[in-house]
Amino acid sequence: MRSLPLLIFFCLAAGLAPWFWPCSGHAEIVDRIVAEVNNDIITLSELEQMAKMIQPQSGSNPKSKETQAIKRQMLEALIDRKLAMAEAKKRGLTLSDKELNQAMEDFKKNNHIPDDAALARALAQKGMTLEELRKQISDQIIQERLVMLAVGAKKIEIPEAEVRRFYDNNFQHKTGKQVHLQVINIPFPPGATGEQKEEVQKKAESALKDFRLGMPLAQVLQKYSFTSQDLGYINQADLNPQLSSILEKLRPGELAPVQNPEGFQLIVLAGKRSGQPPPFEEVAPQIRRMLTSQIREKQFIEWVKTLREKAHIKIML
Q1: In the predicted model, is pLDDT for residue 138 greater than 80?
Q2: CATH code for position 207
């Protein structure tokens, strides 16, 4: 599972909808050093920050063997990132404010987030800030440039047959019912009391009432300072069975409330359709980019081994 650095950013985008990617909650962290990497350190809070983005299950046992194994893999990924960023600094690799601002705009566009205020609210639900996201994106871009510099910037050519094979294995079977969902997240505050949870519930119920009385969704979001994420069309069979059952009772344009350990969600059914695999020509560029990223990631893993051989690394997890 050494592909964690790529997984982190995939889940960061997806993780704005806790039903599908629930975070681990907001337990207080007593910080300590969990690794030394040359003259740098990795703290427990850094590790927990990564866990918030990719931890697969809310409420999982922090002492279970599976959870500990995942944390160790995340720590190894952080060590690789520290080594890479130190090497990038040595080589003078930087990212201009203009480039980073454009990357942030692309992030918002890809996640259907209208502005920085909405993004900040969505990140807060995952225990992150805008500055932390900017740092993550900046580090990722610099790391990609470093890998290209270290292993060569030669263009990677993905054979058409390989793209077609991926399409046949991963897209052709995507048939059946599909639903177009928008998710409004209404989280409990960190360490919420019973009274605070009741207040959140009343807010969710009030928003639901306004929507059902005819208030446009955009006005509901503005009135209650909520954020929403457009998930596009999803195979209904891939959803949580409970959610799938709820959606069966809705007509397009209707909304259903859902409670989860993190708070409440208002699920808007924006549309339904019979599932058909997207045309090959439509998804081929996306497949090619993903396969290219996989190759770059493998190159990074192999190259970073040379940095590890020369580094002082002490793990104290």
Answers
A1: yes
A2: 3.10.50.40
Structural contact between residues 20 and 235, judged by C-beta atoms closer than 8 angstroms = no
Domain limits at 198? 176-275
- Name the more confident of 19 and 148: 148
Return the number of other C-beta atoms located less than 10 Å from residue 120's C-beta: 16
- Alpha carbons 55 and 176: distance in angstroms, whole number: 29
| 279 and 287 Cβ atoms separated by less than 8 Å | no
Distance of alpha carbon 115 from the chain centroid: 18
- For residue 261, the 8-state DSSP code is T
Query: What confidence tens digit (pLDDT) does each residue in 232-247 have?
Result: 888 887 788 888 888 8
Residues in the chain: 317
At 42 the three-state DSSP class reads strand
**Residue of 26 and 204 predicted with greater confidence:** 204
Q: Which of 250, 229, 247, 194 is nearest to 109 (CA)?
A: 229
Rg for the chain, CA atoms, rounded? 21
Asked whether 78 and 35 are in contact (CB, 8 A), the reply is yes
Higher-scoring residue by pLDDT: 98, 30 = 98
Residue 167, in any domain of the structure: no
Q: Is residue 183 part of a domain?
A: yes
In the chain, the N- to C-terminal Cα span, in Å, equals 18
* The two three-digit tokens of residue 243, written as one number: 């959610």
> Residue 5 has what DSSP assignment?
H
Phi first, then psi, for residue 248 (nearest 5°) are: -60, -25
Alpha-carbon span 299 to 156, nearest angstrom: 12
Give a yes or no: residue 215 inside a domain: yes
Whether residue 311 lies inside any domain: the answer is yes
Together in a domain, 295 and 152: yes
Task: Report the distance separating Cα 256 and Cα 265, nearest Å.
Answer: 8
**pTM assigned to the model:** 0.58
User: Where does residue 27 rank: exposed (0-12), middle (13-18), buried (19+ CB within 10 A)?
Assistant: exposed
Contact criterion met (CB below 8 Å) for 81 and 297: no
Q: Which residues, in sequence order, are CB contacts of 103 under 8 Å at separation 6+?
A: 137, 138, 141
